[in-house]
Amino acid sequence: MLEGLVRDTSFKWLLGKQSSFDEEIEEMGRSPSAGTNWIPELSPIANVVVRRCSKILGVSANELRDSFKQEAFESLKQPSLFPRNFLEYCCFRALSLSVGVTGHLADKKFRRLTFDMMVVWEVPAVASQALLSVEEDATVSLEAFSRIAPAVPIIADVIICDNLFQMLTSSTGGRLQFSVYDKYLHGLERAIKKMRTQSESSLLSGVRSKREKILEIDGTVTTQPVLEHVGISTWPGRLILTDHSLYFEALKVVSYDTPKRYHLSEDLKQIIKPELTGPWGTRLFDKAVSYQSISLSEPVVMEFPELKGHTRRDYWLTIIQEVLYVHRYINKYKITGLARDEALSKAVLGVMRVQALQELNLTNAMRYENLLPFNLCDQLPGGDLILETLAEMSTSRELHRSNKSKDTGTLHSSASDMVSQLGSVFGGSSPRSRRETSSLVVGEVVVGDVNPLERAVKESRKKYEKVVLAQETINGVKMGGIDTNLAVMKELMLPIMETWNLILSVVYWDDPTKSSVFCLLTTFIIWRGWLVYVFALASLFSAIFMVLTRCFSREKLMIELKVTAPPPMNTMEQLLAVQNGISELEQNIQDANIVLLKFRALLFSLFPQASQKFAIAIVVAATMMAFVPGRYLLSVVFVELFTRYSPPRRASTERLIRRLREWWFSIPAAPVVLLHDKNNKKKKN
Fold first, then answer.
1. Which segments cross the bilayer (predicted)?
2. Which end of the chain is more exposed for a tag (fewer CB within 10 A), N or C?
3. pLDDT in tens, 117-135
4. Backbone dihedral region for residue 102 (phi beyond 0: left; psi -120 to 50: alpha; all else: beta)
5. Which residues of the chain have pLDDT under 50?
6. How far is residue 410's CA from residue 447's CA, in Å, rounded to a whole number?
């Protein structure tokens, strides 16, 4: 078989269509050790990748196969699953060794190897016969990227892997090309060098610890300043974000002032949100970030001026929130030791990925929060479960490290390992641990299986898809115009209004027979203590109705609400409608304030006679509630209230209501004095 493949590749060479895979297959065929480096169950290009992995590991392909058969579960060695699982085994072992080399992203062979691993992952078996279909412009699917890329934590993360792939393939039809992938890795390499240079510099040397990494700096260019607003004061300066805090250095004549530190690692009830700014306290420009905490007397606003849009602000908002969210995660789950460094590294690597994507100048608008793991967990439904799973996995790894197990398992590469290898400023590389499992774990990916974190992410994404579909329906039913929305609300409230009118007709005894039957039946239910069962039965009927509706309307479309559109209103009519609505709202607020002020007057006995009667009524009610059984008291109250408008009692009820209204109108309201804030006057002056 190998000889036939060599002849095919030689023929391709004559036609000028030979790819890198063809060259290696031809080389393997001519090699004296061809038999030991060829796995018959694998496709030709899979054998090429396995050969590269064997060179990195310093063993032959057959030795790798024997090692896999010894370490893997039987379920992973089934004939139909063996090619892909063995390929993952070889790839992950090679990657776990390759990422230990400082500067591996700069190695062209490493970049090409990781991409070819993804290409081959789709056609691992010999039955694929993919030799003739794989050329230099081969592309990668989402599934292949999601399996291989997270094995190198700096390239991708399990939580944001899908969103990262969508950004990289936004202009290539959902398939990842090597040219885009290579540019992305180049961008990552530059982001690493940038962070290393900034962290090794003398910036914030007086207030920053040695292990505190500088993630981003802004405001150093005069054409793109950063403005800090505190109260009515505004200062231009330089903004620096580390993995623990946010620093602002106000610009002086030739240098910068002492940096102000805004903590992100401590639990200070911080609130970071977008903010509007403008001259003289107006709220016009959506280009700022607000920082609030219990350690500050007033919020601090950082403005990022730019001519068009607010992309710069959005970027800073998300990376600041990412640092805040990772520390909330650490504090919530009490993460310590290497697990804490690993969590911080996950956030740091997320910021570097965003910086690398910014250099690609992608056509689609970038949503930064979808590319940062802790930001995404804050938004996804079930994101708390993802963080909980991540914390459990980190804790188990920490316990495993403390036990110093020497099991003959496989290598593990974590995010903290990645960051520790970016330079000496980040400390030495933590030792890789060996896990007590027969499945290989690199990063957060397991050979031939889905780990708990991947499972939690998939479940969360399924829920998110449902949320997106629901949101599309919500966006579709949003109407413009006050009159149109009122018409929709009126139509929706129609069944409730009809039910309410029916209840009122019973209460006002429009039909004495129906009202009498309802009164006797309800009184009997209350007297017997069956009121709870009535509510339970009503809930049960509602559930049965929904089930029957689902069964008999399964093939039908959703029932649409038909609303008669109101006549169109011109601008003046709309303004008058708004004015009338505001006037009615103001009147309702005034009436509510009067009621509250009258109760205040009763409470403080500003009108002694009314307060005395009110106090006696409260004492009588309290005595009845204390000594009369609940169901008897409820029965008496119901009969009293329900029979007020019955024919025998209607006249006396009207007189009673008139006396109560006269008593209520005679109660004066408590006085109110408006105090004007002197500080506001000073600010205006």
1. 525-548, 614-634
2. C
3. 999 999 888 876 544 455 5
4. beta
5. 1-2, 4-17, 130-132, 405-411, 420-421, 423-438, 683-685
6. 11
Give φ, ψ of 260 to 5 degrees.
-95, 135
Terminal C-alpha separation, the chain: 91
Helix 482-492 and helix 494-507, axial crossing angle in degrees, nearest 10: 50
User: Can you read off the two tokens belonging to residue 555?
Assistant: 């093939």
Say how many C-beta atoms besides its own lie within 10 A of residue 6's C-beta: 18
Check residue 125 and report its DSSP letter.
B
User: Contact 159/377 with Cβ under 8 angstroms?
Assistant: yes
Q: What would the two tokens of residue 431 be?
A: 């030792």
- Which sign, positive or negative, has the C-alpha torsion 551, 556, 557, 562? negative
Q: Phi first, then psi: give them for residue 646, nearest 5 degrees.
A: -70, 155
The predicted structure's pLDDT at residue 347 = 94
Question: SS3 for 164-215, per residue?
Answer: HHHHHCCCCCCCEEHHHHHHHHHHHHHHHHHHHHHHHCCCCCCCCCCCCCEE
The answer to whether 73 touches 437, Cβ cutoff 8 Å, is no
Give 363's contacts (C-beta < 8 A, 6+ positions apart): 170, 171
Type and span of the H or E element at 248: strand 245-250
- State the residue for tokens 């962070």: 195
Tokens of 207: 């207030």
Provide the pairing of β-strand 214-218 with 233-242.
antiparallel
Tokens of 462: 């399924």
> H-type helices in 299-336, by residue range?
311-333
Q: How far apart are CA 211 and CA 262, in angstroms?
A: 18
For residue 406, CA distances in Å to 66, 402, 410, 413, 435 come to 21, 12, 10, 16, 8
The reported pLDDT for the residue numbered 29 is 60
Find the angle CA(569)-CA(572)-CA(575) to the nearest 5 degrees: 95
Q: What is the pLDDT of residue 13?
A: 37
Residue 488: CB atoms within 10 A of its CB come to: 17
pLDDT attached to residue 40: 86
Q: Which residues contact 342 (CB under 8 A, 6 or more apart)?
A: 394, 397, 414, 415, 416
Report residue 534 as tokens: 């009535």
For residue range 529-583, what is the model confidence (pLDDT) as tens digits? 888 899 999 999 999 988 887 777 655 555 677 888 888 877 788 788 888 889 9
Question: Going by C-beta distance under 8 Å and a sequence separation of 6 or more, which residues neighbour residue 326?
Answer: 243, 343, 344, 346, 347, 374
CB 253 within 8 A of CB 239: no
Overall residue count recorded for the chain in this entry: 685
Question: Who contacts 30 (Cβ-Cβ below 8 Å, separation ≥6)?
Answer: 6
Spatial contact of 335 and 283, defined as CB atoms under 8 Å apart: no
Residues in CB range of 178: below 8 A, 6 or more apart: 112, 115, 136, 137, 138
Give the HSE-up count for residue 107: Cα atoms under 13 Å, Cβ half-sphere.
12
The helices-and-strands tally (H runs, E runs) of the chain is 24, 12
Q: Could you give the domains of the chain?
A: 2-191 (no CATH), 192-452 (2.30.29.30), 482-552 (no CATH)
Can you tell me whether residue 620 is helix, strand or coil?
helix
Structure tokens given for 339: 């697990």
